Structure formats: structure tokens, C-alpha cells
Amino acid sequence: NSFGNFQPPKRIWVSNRSTDETHQARPTCLHSTFEKTMVAQEDPPHVPASTRRKCWAARDEYFKCVDDALGRMEAGDKTASATTECRALKEEFKDACPAAWAKHFILKRVNEKRVSKTMEHQMKQYESQHPGEAPDSGR
Questions:
Q1: Selection from 8, 54, 52, 51 nearest residue 32 by Cα
Q2: CA distances from 92 to 34, 51, 57, 71, 104 (A)
Q3: Short-list 35, 36, 43, CA closest to 16
Q4: How far is CA 39 from CA 19, 35, 84, in A?
Q5: Distance between CA atoms of 60 and 93, rounded to whole angstroms?
Q6: pTM attached to this predicted model
Q7: pLDDT along the chain (139 residues), means of 10
């Protein structure tokens, strides 16, 4: 043997949880001689196209209801309430989507609204400080 006493590194297959029919963990190889610390990555469960379409439709309906209610509230309608008016649609949205997706969509929407309001505020501030000037687009 021309390799002398060379021993290839041992491979260790790990899984971060027990496997079942719905969530199978993808094992990650760890080379003990390299002393790497790696966490097993889990394959996301497959979500059929029909389920994705139902989820997106339910999301769009719920967010439209919220937008409509908030628009009426901003217009002065004291009886408008996004919480009560859209409760059923929110439950449908949460039932139609995987929990992680629903959380992601809600957080994404909140962040987009926050950025939009910040940009509007900054534009108003700029326009009040520089009347008649167009803001520099940064290009």
C-alpha cells in the first residue's frame, strides 16, 4: 500500500430530530478530522401548487380586507375596525397557509408598510425644507 498508515476521515451522519413521514431530515456529513461543527439541514416539506394558490388567495383577501378597513378608519369612519371585520379572513388565511408562511407574510407586510410610511414622512420633510425642488434620486 503506497499510502502508508493513511486513514480516510470517518463520516458521521447526523439528524437534528427523529424522522417521520411528514418531515425527513437531510443528513449532513461531518468530517471528524476537520473538526467542523455543522448542523443538519432539514428539507422543507413539499407544498403542492394547489395549496400554495389557496394560501396566496387567502392572504390577498385578508390583506385587502385590512387595507379597506384601515382606509375607512383614516377617512374618519369610527365604526371601521380591521381586527373585527377581518377576523374570519385572518383565520382562513392561517388555515390555508403553513404557519411559517403566514408569519412570514404578515411580518413582510408590516415591514413594507413601515418602510412606506418612513419614505412618505421623509419625502414630506424634504419637501417642507426644500420647496419646489425635486429630491435627488441618488444616481
A1: 8
A2: 49, 13, 10, 22, 16
A3: 43
A4: 15, 13, 43
A5: 9
A6: 0.59
A7: 56 45 45 44 71 96 93 85 89 95 95 93 88 68
